[in-house]
Amino acid sequence: MKIVFATANPHKIQEVRDICGDCGIEFVLPAKGFNPVENGDTFEANSLIKAKEAYRVSKTYSLADDSGLCVNALNGAPGLYSARYAGTQDEKIAKLLYELKDKHDRSAKFVCCMTLLDENGKMIYQTTGECKGSIVKNRKGINGFGYDPIFMVDGFSKTMAELSSDEKNQISHRAVALKNVLKFLQSMS
Ligand code: IMP
To answer: How far, in Å, CA of 109 to CA of 134, rounded?
Structure first.
């Protein structure tokens, strides 16, 4: 089975392919012209917008991921705006560390909402995965992407960027959501 994965982020599709392993699904990028306008006010709404846009250009099963980092002491920010929190990724991390400099509570979670549309463009499944942790004071590790170097995963004494891709793909918000999607697809067949 082939499923379009609604992203322009090469890290995300690589993780999805690695989590899927030999699950029998080939994840491919959307056809040309994929340009979602992420103006929803929840992860669920933006995930649906991206899935619909992937379906519009590809006209087949489409799966979207909308994800972000929610920090408790910042009332859930950067959250939905994780990708747009500042200019470069380095600047986004610097801004977050600055905002947290006087905060005692550094707890946070990664959230990933996935939405699956069928071959007619109808939403057939939506699920949200979370991964809890806390924000460290200094960047550590070189693996992964985004905010991984400052996110210490609960139960590990390593940041997400110090985990191997295999380790991240066991416990990440994306892994939790994708495993639910794969279970749903199995239950359909
Ligand atoms: P989206 O493409 O609108 O879903 O934006 C997600 C943003 O959240 C990314 O650009 C990253 O900044 C951040 N993010 C989501 N998932 C991860 C992850 O697994 N690791 C680190 N950052 C992530």
So the answer is: 7
Atom of ligand 1 nearest to the CA of 173: 19
Atom of ligand 1 nearest to the CA of 83: 10
Decide: pTM greater than 0.85. Answer: yes
Give the C-alpha distances (Å, rounded to integers) separating 137 from 23, 87, 101, 162, 167: 38, 20, 8, 15, 22
**16-51 residue pLDDT tens:** 999 999 999 999 999 999 999 999 999 999 999 999
Of 54, 16, 25, 48, the C-alpha closest to 176 is 16
Ligand 1 mean position to 182 CA, how many Å? Answer: 21
Q: How far is the CA of 121 from the centre of ligand 1 (A)?
A: 25
Give the pair of three-digit tokens for residue 125.
């499944």
DSSP letter string, 42-65: SHHHHHHHHHHHHHHHH-S-EEEE
Full domain range(s) for residue 105: 2-188
Separation of 120 CA from ligand 1 center, angstroms? Answer: 28
What is the count of structural domains for the chain? 1
Instruction: Respond yes or no: is residue 66 known to be catalytic.
Output: yes
CATH number at residue 144: 3.90.950.10
Give tens-digit pLDDT for 71-127: 999 999 999 999 999 999 999 999 999 999 999 999 999 999 999 999 999 999 999
Among the options 18, 41, 66, 105, which is catalytic?
Answer: 66
